[in-house]
Every structure is written in structure tokens, then in C-alpha cells.
Write a structure and sequence with these properties.
24 helices; 507 residues; mainly alpha; Sodium/glucose cotransporter
């Protein structure tokens, strides 16, 4: 790295630290710490949606997919605006009317504390693993690009994210997300610009070469559901986006951080638009990188060409001019921290609101605030530990843990839909729905689970899920919702029995 690249990266990190110190002075209550005093403008929250949805993986996987594959998976992202529109119309008003802070409060009102505790636990475990993976990917990527010690990268990045989240609360998270969003999107635009002007023939020639190699293929209309066909990808996209923007604590906090329902809806739609543009930008960069290195094959070593996720980092560090490389590195740091800060703050919220207050409801707001800051430190440190474990090579255990967490979360979107929009749904019915969703998810991941225990390949092939894995999420939620609703109609509601007993006693 040149001195100018270092300077850009240092200035970026210094601004993050200064912003954290500024917002730390305004954290006087849990409402300030977790919801920004419910006064954050919609456009800022929209940028936060954008920033927290883009991670280091975006810098690796999207250009890697564009370089080594095609645009078929991107169809799932293209329906994202449609999904966010539905969420903005139906889900956001429900949260604004029925939730104070935690996304899982209404589950307790509808179905009891056990359901709330289950959903909260799944969220915390999933995001603990996810934070470790984000730090791991960042450490590996920056190590390959710069030669820095990956352990130092994981620790420094994690500590910095903990620092401004712990002291600045959601305000620091959202306003730093704005800076991070601008940094990573600006880096992407500069990369596209230099990629275009640095190639013989410019953009249109790059586009023609990529198009001739079918890099822009978007649709597979076959009826084979074991492949990522149009039907599989659309089903996956709808349920992936709907699940994230309906059941996640971090999204619910943003819905509640704006002054009104209308502003919350505008923030989600703005965030959805900018996220889609960014995903498309980095996928386009990957496709054009394929064309660029077809035109200039001497610039790409064969060992890098064989690993599609390494092509973009190689291009950044070896082809881009001084200064732009530093901005891209800052963007990669931004992408990681904008995902980490969101998760750390929301995991802290769940610890205080969903767990601690259930057992200690008399706790003062000041005690909750101090506990919230302490749990930011706790969950952030655990995330760093997971990232370091991955760097030591314990990837199979991590993968297995992430798989189990995902399986246990099977059908959770169906649970939320029952709780929000089916008045007849009750606790016994949703237990049946959750159980059926988990069974479908286990079926979908059975080959991975059995593979860990060295079960014979023939047996795995016999019991494995017959269709593409992307179908599992949609199928699990559809069955969870259908079974939960049907069971609620067939099985007696325990609340009605209790009311009848109380009425009999009163008489």
C-alpha cells in the first residue's frame, strides 16, 4: 500500500472514532441507546438499512459470482423492491402499533413467553455466528490483499465496532452507517470507472465480451427444481427478504427509530432501492472483470484466475491507481463494521429486553442502559472469538453450528405471519407449525448434518432433499404457516379454556 492509501484508511477510521465520541454524550436512556430517541430522519435510517445489508462478503461474493458464473442468482435480488413494498405496507405499521422495543414482544402477548424466548435465542445465536464469519472473511480478504496479520485485522475491526456501538448506541450505528455506505458505494463506482477506462474499447467492448460468454444470463425457465430455475430463485428471494425484514430485531429497531410510520416506510423503501443498486453494481463489476482479463490475460496469474472470489481483491491491489485502493479497503472495512454494529446493538437489546427484564422487571432504566452497554461488549467480544476460531481452521464446527441454528429457525417467518395476521392462531397451534417448519429445514440440511458424522454416501443420497436447497426456506415457512393455522382451528385454544374456568369461578 502506498502512503496515500494508508492516509485514506486512517482518516476514515479516525472519523468513525470521533463520531462515536460525539454520540456517546447523548445516551441517557434505553430509548436513546436502542432507538435513537425515536427521532432519526427517514433518509438516515434508509442509509443504515443499506449499510447493514452490505458486508465484506458483498465485496467478494458478488464480483466472484459475476466473474465465475452468471446473473441467475441475482433474480432473487431483483424482486427485493417488491418484497420491501409489501413489508412497508403491512409489517411496518404492525410493529409501530404493537411493539415498544423488541421485535419479539408481540409473540409473548399472543403465544406466551416461551415463544418469545425461542425466537430471541435463535436470533442471538445466528448473529453470533454471522459476526464471527464477517470478521473471518474480512481478516482473510485483507490479509490476501495487504499481507497484514489476519488475527490483528479481526481484533482491531471488532474492537472498533464494539467501541462506537457500546458508547454511541443506535445513533452512532446509523450515522456511521451513512459514512460507511457512501464509502463502499463510492469505492464501487470508482472501481467501475477505472475498469472501464483501463480496458481497450471501453465499457461497450467489455460488455460485448462478457455477453458473448453468457455472463448476463438471468433466466432459467426449465422445470427442473433441482437447479436454480426462475421458480426456485423467485421463491428463495421472496422468503429470504421477507424473513429478514419481518423477523429480525435489527430491522424492527429501525422501523421504531423514526418519528412516524410513514417515515419508517420511506426509510425501508429507500434502503431497498440503494441495496439493489449496490448489489447490481458489484455483480456488474465481476462480469466486466471477466471481460477485462479476457482482453488482458497477461495481467491475471493462473492461481488467482482459478479462485473467483480472489479476482476482485487482486484487481484492487494490483491494477487500480494509488488512492482508489485505499478507498476500496476503507469500503471493505465499512461493509464489515456496518454489519457488526447493527448485530451487536440488537443482540444487546434482546439480552436486556427479552431475557433480563423477564426475570428482573423492577430494573430501572439506568440499570438497563448500563447492562445494555455491557452486553454490547460481551457479544462483540464473543464475535471476535468466533472469528479467531475460524482463522485457526475450525470451520467445520462453525459450519455445523450455523447449520443447526438455521434449521432451528426454520418456519420462523410463518410464525410471525400467524402472530401478526391470524387472530385464531394460538400457542398449541404454533407449536405444531414451528415443529413442522423445523422438520422441513432438517430434511433440507440432512446431507450436511449426516456428512459431519461420516454417514455413508449411499444413505445420504437416499434421504437427501430432492430439490434445490434454496427451496427449503420457502417450503419450510409455507408449511409452518399452513400447519400452524390448521392446528389452531382443530386443537382447542388454551386461552379459551382458561377464560371459561375463570368465568365459572366468578359465577
Amino acid at each position: 500500500m502506498a502512503v496515500f492509501d494508508w492516509l485514506i484508511l486512517i482518516i476514515y477510521l479516525a472519523i468513525i472514532i470521533i463520531m462515536a465520541g460525539w454520540f456517546a454524550r447523548r445516551q441517557n436512556s434505553t430509548e436513546d441507546f436502542y432507538l435513537g430517541g425515536r427521532s432519526i430522519p427517514w433518509w438516515a435510517v434508509g442509509f443504515s438499512f443499506f449499510g447493514s445489508s452490505i458486508s465484506t462478503g458483498t465485496f467478494l461474493s458478488f464480483p466472484g459470482q459475476g466473474y465465475g458464473g452468471n446473473w441467475i442468482p441475482h433474480l432473487a435480488q431483483l424482486i427485493f423492491p417488491f418484497t420491501t413494498l409489501l413489508v412497508a405496507i403491512w409489517v411496518v405499521p404492525y410493529y409501530r402499533q404493537n411493539v415498544k422495543m423488541s421485535a419479539y414482544e408481540f409473540l409473548e402477548k399472543r403465544f406466551g413467553y416461551a415463544t418469545r424466548c425461542y425466537a430471541s435465542t435463535i436470533y442471538v445465536l445466528f448473529h453470533l455466528f454471522r459476526n464471527g464469519m464477517i470478521l473471518f472473511l474480512m481478516g482473510k480478504a485483507l490479509n490476501a490483499m495487504t499481507g497484514w496479520d489476519p488475527r490483528a485485522i479481526v481484533i482491531i475491526s471488532g474492537v472498533l465496532a464494539i467501541f462506537y456501538t457500546m458508547f454511541g448506541g443506535l445513533e452512532a450505528v446509523i450515522w456511521t452507517d451513512i459514512l460507511q455506505s457512501i464509502t463502499l458505494f463510492g469505492g464501487g463506482l470508482l472501481c467501475l470507472y477505472f475498469l472501464t477506462i483501463g480496458s481497450d474499447g471501453g465499457f461497450f467492448h467489455l460488455f460485448e465480451v462478457a455477453h458473448a460468454a453468457d455472463k448476463f444470463t438471468l433466466f432459467d425457465w426449465s422445470l427442473n427444481l433441482s437447479n436454480p430455475t426462475v421458480y426456485v430463485v423467485i421463491l428463495f428471494g421472496i422468503f429470504t427478504h421477507a424473513t429478514f425484514y419481518t423477523t429480525s430485531q435489527d430491522t424492527a429497531q429501525r422501523y421504531l427509530a423514526t418519528p412516524s410510520t410513514r417515515e419508517a416506510q420511506k426509510s425501508l423503501l429507500w434502503g431497498g432501492f440503494t441495496i439493489l443498486i449496490t448489489w447490481t453494481l458489484f455483480l456488474l463489476i465481476g462480469s466486466l472483470l471477466y471481460a477485462y482479463f479476457q482482453i488482458h490475460p497477461d495481467q491475471l496469474p493462473p492461481e488467482i484466475a482459478a479462485k473467483e472470489t480472489q479476482v476482485f481483491p487482486f484487481y484492487v491491489m494490483n491494477v487500480l491507481p494509488i488512492g482508489v485502493s485505499g478507498l476500496i479497503l476503507a469500503g471493505m472495512c465499512a461493509a464489515a463494521m456496518s454489519s457488526l454494529d447493527t448485530s451487536i446493538n440488537s443482540m444487546s437489546m434482546i439480552t436486556v429486553r427479552d431475557f433480563y427484564l423477564h426475570f428482573y422487571p423492577q430494573a430501572t432504566d439506568r440499570q438497563q442502559l448500563y447492562l445494555g452497554q455491557g452486553t454490547c461488549l460481551f457479544w462483540g467480544t464473543l464475535g471476535i472469538a468466533v472469528g479467531l476460531l475460524l482463522l485457526t481452521g475450525i470451520e467445520q464446527a462453525f459450519s455445523f453450528g450455523m447449520t443447526i441454528t438455521s434449521l432451528l429457525g426454520g418456519g420462523i417467518f410463518g410464525l410471525f405471519m400467524l402472530g401478526m395476521f391470524v387472530p385464531r392462531a394460538h400457542s398449541r397451534g404454533i407449536i405444531c407449525g414451528i415443529a413442522s417448519g423445523i422438520l422441513v429445514s432438517i430434511w433440507g440440511g440432512l446431507d450436511q448434518i449426516l456428512g459431519v458424522f461420516n454417514v455413508s454416501t449411499n444413505f445420504i443420497n437416499t434421504v437427501r432433499f430432492p430439490w434445490h436447497p434454496w427451496i427449503v426456506l420457502g417450503l419450510g415457512n409455507i408449511i409452518s404457516f399452513s400447519v400452524g393455522w390448521s392446528a389452531s382451528l382443530i386443537i382447542s385454544d388454551p386461552r379459551e379454556k382458561r377464560i371459561q374456568s375463570e368465568n365459572a369461578l366468578n359465577k
